[in-house]
């Protein structure tokens, strides 16, 4: 069987292994490396299995029939009505670490059951439903547009038994989609569930490559979306450029929060930056911070010294502020030498100019000069060339 869209389940080959009923899988989204796979399970209730479905959706089921399951097995599981088909993504004791991480209680949660390993008929029906998802999404978008609904249907996921489909949509305001559900149910002869998601969740489902050159975090490993504010960029001294700070979802990049705690800890004891430093030469105003070197940069604005930058250690800034509080001025901004980076050795050429747009201009000028010199040396030769 050819490609049927099964790649959305993290599979690179749509043909199943008939012997062990296993689908060949690639590095799926939200992949978890089982570092306990070679250790015998010691947990008394090691019968909870993690099963993944489309994109980032994962659920946990109880293996009540004590089936011999391993990663990659295709299983038929209990659904709200009928059954669904998914791929086993994790087994053994590490599943309970995932439950603890996702704050799922073993005692309070009623887990659905794994019925069986999927039969060949289950897999064929499952592949047929996957193949219909893209076409169904495009038709649903057209129907929503004809009804003038202010919403965007971003994805469709069919249940394994082809009796139900979940339509994921994005909308800024409340949408009355009752008429849409009626039309979709009549057209596709299935039960319809509408599920609203945010722009971050949509980016996680669709996937893509970020500005860092790697796969989007929301589609590869993130499953919790914490709020991101511009204060995170300010704390890390990042330029507030909306085009650079926004991700593919149009929101602030999630990675702005990754190192935020480190910067907050480093700046915990830093003095205030809104207080200018008064010296005998003039008043110095704050410009920027080198957080990990603990250096503030100030500029003097007077007739003798215009927009010159001075590196001042954090301790010296605190000391000057204390002196200024008493009404006194200081002679110099900094009494400590700040280490500056050494200039690169130019014996091997200027490495920074390798990607410059004008790097060939000098070469072209030198060639023109050489041609002029040749013409002056051999004028007769040039005349013969022109005649010929």
Q: Taking all residues together, what is the mean pLDDT?
A: 80
Helix proportion: 25-40%
Shape: extended
- The helix/strand class is alpha+beta
- Sketch the major β-sheet: 5 strands, mixed, barrel
Would you mind describing this structure in some detail?
This protein is of the alpha+beta class and 388 residues long. It has 4 domains: 6-122, no CATH class; 132-200, GMP Synthetase, Chain A, domain 3, CATH 3.30.300; 271-341, no CATH class; 350-388, no CATH class. 29% of the residues lie in helices and 22% in strands. The chain is built from 12 helices and 14 strands. It has helices at residues 94-101, 120-131, 133-146, 178-188, 199-206, 217-220, 230-235, 242-245, 260-266, 314-325, 361-377, 379-387; strands spanning 11-17, 22-25, 48-52, 58-62, 74-78, 83-90, 112-117, 152-158, 164-170, 191-196, 277-278, 283-290, 295-301, 306-313. The strands form 4 sheets. It has a 5-stranded mixed barrel with strand order 3-4-7-5-6. A 4-stranded antiparallel beta sheet has the order 11-12-13-14, covered by helices on one side. It has a 3-stranded mixed beta sheet with strand order 8-9-10, with helices on both faces. Helix 3 packs across helix 4. It is extended. The model is unreliable at 336-344 (pLDDT under 50).
Quick summary:
This protein has helices at residues 94-101, 120-131, 133-146, 178-188, 199-206, 217-220, 230-235, 242-245, 260-266, 314-325, 361-377, 379-387; strands spanning 11-17, 22-25, 48-52, 58-62, 74-78, 83-90, 112-117, 152-158, 164-170, 191-196, 277-278, 283-290, 295-301, 306-313. It is built from 12 helices and 14 strands.
């Amino acid at each position: 069987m050819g490609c049927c869209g099964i790649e959305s389940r993290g599979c690179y080959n749509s043909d199943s292994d008939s012997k062990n009923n296993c689908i060949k899988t690639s590095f799926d989204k939200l992949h978890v490396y089982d570092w306990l796979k070679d250790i015998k399970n010691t947990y008394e209730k090691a019968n909870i299995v993690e099963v993944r479905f489309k994109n980032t959706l994962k659920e946990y089921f109880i293996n009540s029939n004590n089936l011999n399951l391993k990663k990659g097995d295709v299983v038929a599981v209990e659904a709200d009505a009928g059954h669904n088909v998914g791929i086993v993504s994790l087994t053994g004791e590490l599943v309970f670490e995932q439950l603890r991480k996702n704050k799922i209680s073993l005692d309070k949660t009623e887990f659905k059951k794994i019925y069986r390993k999927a039969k060949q008929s289950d897999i064929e029906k499952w592949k047929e439903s996957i193949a219909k998802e893209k076409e169904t999404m495009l038709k649903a978008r057209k129907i929503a547009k004809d009804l003038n609904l202010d919403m965007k249907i971003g994805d469709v996921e069919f249940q394994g038994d082809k009796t139900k489909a979940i339509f994921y949509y994005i909308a800024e305001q409340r949408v009355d989609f009752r008429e849409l559900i009626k039309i979709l149910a009549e057209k596709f002869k299935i039960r319809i569930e509408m599920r609203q998601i945010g722009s971050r969740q949509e980016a996680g489902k669709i996937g893509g490559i970020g500005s860092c050159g790697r796969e989007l975090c929301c589609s590869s490993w993130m499953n919790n979306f914490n709020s991101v504010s511009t204060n995170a960029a300010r704390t890390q001294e990042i330029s507030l450029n909306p085009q650079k700070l926004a991700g593919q979802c149009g929101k602030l990049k999630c990675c702005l929060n990754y190192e935020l705690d480190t910067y907050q800890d480093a700046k915990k004891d830093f003095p205030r930056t809104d207080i200018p430093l008064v010296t005998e030469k003039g008043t110095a105003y704050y410009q920027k911070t080198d957080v990990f070197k603990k250096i503030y940069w100030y500029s003097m604005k007077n007739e003798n010294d215009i927009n010159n930058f001075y590196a001042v250690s954090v301790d010296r800034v605190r000391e000057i502020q204390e002196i200024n509080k008493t009404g006194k001025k200081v002679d110099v901004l900094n009494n400590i030498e700040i280490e500056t980076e050494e200039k690169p050795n130019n014996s091997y050429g200027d490495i920074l100019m390798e990607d410059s747009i004008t790097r060939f201009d000098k070469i072209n000028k030198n060639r023109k000069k050489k041609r002029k010199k040749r013409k002056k040396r051999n004028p007769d030769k040039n005349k013969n060339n022109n005649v010929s």
